[in-house]
Write a structure and sequence with these properties.
By secondary structure, the protein is of the alpha+beta class. It contains one helix and three strands; from the N terminus they run E-E-E-H. The protein has a three-stranded antiparallel β-sheet. Strand 2 (about 15-20) and strand 3 (about 25-30) form a beta hairpin. The longest helix is centred in the C-terminal third of the chain and has 9 residues, at about 50-60. The protein is globular, with a radius of gyration of 13 Å.
Amino acid sequence: MKVTKLVSTCDIKDCPTIYATDRGTLLVQGETPTDHGLQIPAHETLVEIPMELIQKAFRDNLI
């Protein structure tokens, strides 16, 4: 899979980030919340990212 960084909240590698793949999908890097109370299948996960990241991606016409 080829991954391209689209937008991040900072310039270091441990910040919330959105990546595009050559599969036509997005990868999202963020915190893994544990206090959500939801039942998530074992093959899936939740990732929490700041709304600012989504707004920045749209504002910059990246997604």
